[in-house]
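Need the bound structure for heme C, inputs here:
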Amino acid sequence: MSHPNFRLTLLASLGASLLLACGDSGEGGGVGLLASDDACASGLSWNHGNTGSEQMHPGGDCIKCHGQLGEGPTYEVAGTVYESLTEEDDCGGLEGATIEITDINNNVFTMTTNSAGNFFMTPEQAEGIEYPATVKAIYDGRENPMIGFLPYGNCSDCHTRNGNWTAAGGRIYVPPGE
Ligand code: HEC
Ligand code: HEC
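Answer from helper R.:
Posting the output first, comments after.
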């Protein structure tokens, strides 16, 4: 009987980079629950399904899924920062990026991305935030502002792989430096 994963395994090894080769060869290839994945700019992706974690489903719509399933924390603001516009769902993003929201009353709210590139604020943490706001992503001294106003906190509603809705170009991202 042939192994059901044979073709996938073959493809993965054909496409394997040094990263994957070293990353998979022992402990420490991933970060937390993220596994090595050379299809993602970060070299990491989520493959633990709906296991609850702050690293889960980077790029996914945390707020919508938690609401629909009635499981997981309630967030007022959530999303994922990448280093390119077009990362696939579940690709890990940039760790240590800052999201800075300035609301209509000039109150500033900041979040730092975790090892999956995810950021989020509970309703308590976001208390007092009034829309429309402005927002920018900052990483390593480089800033990428959203030109339009921020109408609400669910970033992933618009920032998907291909961009959604009001035609966001894709992911929230800070381009790599020189
Ligand atoms: C497709 C659905 C889905 C998406 C998308 C999703 N989650 Fe979850 N999340 C769940 C479910 C289901 C649970 C509860 C499962 C559990 O506790 O094991 C959960 C639980 C959690 C928990 C609780 C973990 C704990 O220890 O209790 C955290 C934190 C979390 N999610 C963060 C996030 C963040 C951040 C995002 C977005 C970047 C996100 N989730 C996206 C389905 C989702
Ligand atoms: C209603 C849709 C919508 C929501 C919600 C939204 N954005 Fe945007 N965003 C856009 C659009 C459209 C653009 C591209 C045009 C522009 O810059 O205004 C954009 C661009 C950006 C950019 C610059 C370009 C890029 O792709 O990185 C950043 C950074 C950004 N948004 C961050 C955020 C963050 C953080 C949130 C959540 C707090 C958020 N956005 C929520 C629609 C949205």
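Comments: The two ends are 51 Å apart (CA to CA). The helical segments are 6-14, 18-23, 62-69.
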